[in-house]
Write a structure and sequence with these properties.
Belongs to the pirin family. The protein contains one helix and 26 strands. With 320 residues, it is mostly beta strands. Strand 25 and strand 26 form a beta hairpin.
Length: 320
């Protein structure tokens, strides 16, 4: 998914200085953004929290009734230095990319795209498409040692599941309670879809060295005693060995977490780099038709890049 903001702000992310070494309960308020006909709630980067582990971008959208609408229509656009994670609760999305992948993504199937040095992709609601569309799009920042890797796309329809009384947890990326996703990762992290039955009261085992956040996709829950309604995210810090969850109704949550990302990065538009020169070169390559390749089969023009800001693009210091 793309950031379609024509005047994207400079985002200096990463580093350990702002990571709590103990449990916290920090409610993150979303802001709405338009992706063509789709309105999303953007939870990361947030005014108060830019990253959770290597997770650096979270959009939540729907549930939307698109029976008489085109649904998701995101034109070809570039990515570099990151992975995209597509996750659906309802509906279908057709993914096309410049390495030749064409894949319809369905609920609770992992669509994982590693941009590495450069890739382009487009996302559309399939034709015909189901009535409802509900999901999340997330990005994972690649560490310096792997951010120039070859671009690739993975589709995993069968993912490991952890169960407990009133809980079904699908492991999207990384590992949870001994279950490990087949998706490729480059830093220690976890992403899990948590389905809770009404009345469930569970304690989910977590890693004390990871920082975590929880997004409510549907229903009403209490996460570590804090009530969350759909579209809200709670940042939890680190230092936990378990996470209390209580469902006030049948609910769906997304758990994201990981070791705090040591490197500081520049995230501008759909590109992640370390210097202004890298971002400028990436933008120029996209506008000239170089490096990112071509998304075949999409009926429409690629998304033009916005102008670079006048503000210098530079990350903050990388010391703790």
């Amino acid at each position: 998914m793309s950031d379609l903001d024509l005047q994207p702000s400079l985002r200096e992310c990463g580093g350990r200085a702002d990571v709590s070494g103990q449990p916290v309960r920090e409610l993150l308020n979303p802001r709405e953004a338009s992706l063509g006909a789709t309105v999303v709630r953007r939870l990361l980067p947030n005014l108060g929290r830019r990253m959770v582990g290597a997770w650096c971008f979270v959009d939540h959208y729907g549930p939307d009734d698109i029976a008489d609408e085109p649904g998701m229509q995101v034109p070809p656009h570039p990515h570099m230095g990151l992975q995209t994670v597509s996750w659906l609760h309802e509906g279908e999305v057709l993914h096309r990319d410049s390495v030749g992948s064409v894949q319809v993504l369905r609920p609770r199937q992992l669509g994982l795209m590693t941009s590495g040095r450069a890739i382009a992709h487009a996302e559309q609601s399939a034709v015909p498409h189901p009535r409802l569309l509900h999901g999340a799009q997330l990005w994972v920042a690649l560490p310096d040692a792997h951010r120039h890797t070859a671009p690739a796309f993975e589709h995993h329809a069968d993912l490991p599941v952890v169960t407990g009384p009133g809980l079904t947890a699908t492991v999207i990326l990384g590992g949870l309670d001994g279950a490990v996703s087949p998706g490729t990762t480059y830093t220690p992290l976890v992403g899990a879809d948590l389905a809770l039955a009404e009345g469930a009261d569970v304690r989910l085992p977590v890693e004390p060295d990871f920082e975590y956040a929880v997004l409510t996709m549907s229903g009403a829950t209490e996460v570590d005693g804090v009530r969350l309604d759909p579209g809200s995210m709670l940042y939890l810090g680190s230092g936990r060995t378990e996470l209390p969850l209580r469902a006030l109704s049948d609910s769906g949550l997304l758990l994201i977490g990981g070791e705090p990302f040591e490197e500081e990065i520049i995230m501008w538009w759909n590109l992640i780099g370390r210097t202004q020169e890298e971002i400028a070169e990436g933008r120029a390559a996209w506008m000239s038709g170089d490096r990112f390749g071509t998304v075949h089969g999409y009926d429409g023009s690629p998304l033009p890049a916005p102008a670079l800001p006048a503000t210098p693009l530079k990350p903050r210091g990388r010391t703790r």
